TrEMBL record:
It comes from the Eukaryota. InterPro entries: Peptidase_S1_PA (IPR009003), Peptidase_S1_PA_chymotrypsin (IPR043504), Peptidase_S1A (IPR001314), Trypsin_dom (IPR001254), TRYPSIN_HIS (IPR018114). Keywords: Disulfide bond, Hydrolase, Protease, Serine protease, Signal. This is Zgc:92313. Residues 34-171 form the Peptidase S1 domain. Pfam families: Trypsin. GO terms for biological process: proteolysis. Residues 1-22 form the signal peptide. The keyword Transcription does not apply. GO terms for molecular function: serine-type endopeptidase activity.
């Protein structure tokens, strides 16, 4: 009986290895995009910003956390010391077209974790200091951040915002 149980266990492990993709223990498989979203109603996410460069246009999104600071990802700034071509747009609903509540802000500096090299290795976070303060309105607000000691349940739902494809295939 023990022999059959051992064979069954080995078979299940082999099937799991064959069907699954190998990844580092404790780290979820990283996907390069999010699909299945929906278009946001106007003004629904007043803390969402659009980060662009002169040469590339839209490169990343970010989140307003105060009048002068935006939270984004370190990989958006390959050289955080060279930010002259970057612009942050707040109050923006559409990437293309007219946005009546939009204002643009140059970046004063970008702060990334010491030793950050690759988003796959973690620490993919950046604090972006704006050269000018944002002005609060119905369409421009900071996100509410939790206190450091708050614990979230594993089944808690969250929302991710940004500009991208809402369907697989590029729409």
């Amino acid at each position: 009986m023990r022999y059959i149980s051992c064979i069954r266990t080995s078979f299940v492990i082999l099937i799991g290895l064959w069907m699954g993709e190998a990844q580092e223990c404790g780290r979820p498989q990283m996907l390069n995009r999010i699909v299945g979203g929906s278009a946001a109603s106007e003004g629904a996410w007043p803390w969402q910003v659009d980060i662009q460069t002169d040469s590339q246009g839209h490169v990343c999104g970010g989140t307003i956390i105060s009048e002068n600071w935006v939270l984004s990802a370190a990989h958006c700034f390959p050289n955080p010391n060279d930010i002259s071509s970057y612009m942050v747009y707040v109050g923006r609903q559409q990437l293309n077209g007219w946005n009546p509540d939009e204002t643009s802000h140059r970046i004063r500096r970008v702060v990334v974790p010491l030793g950050y090299t690759d988003p796959q290795l973690g620490q993919d976070i950046a604090l972006v200091e704006l050269a000018t303060s944002v002005i609060w309105s119905d369409r421009v607000q900071p996100v509410c951040l939790p206190y450091g000691n708050v614990e979230f349940s594993s089944d808690m739902k969250c929302m991710i915002t940004g500009w991208g494809n809402i369907r697989d295939g590029g729409e």
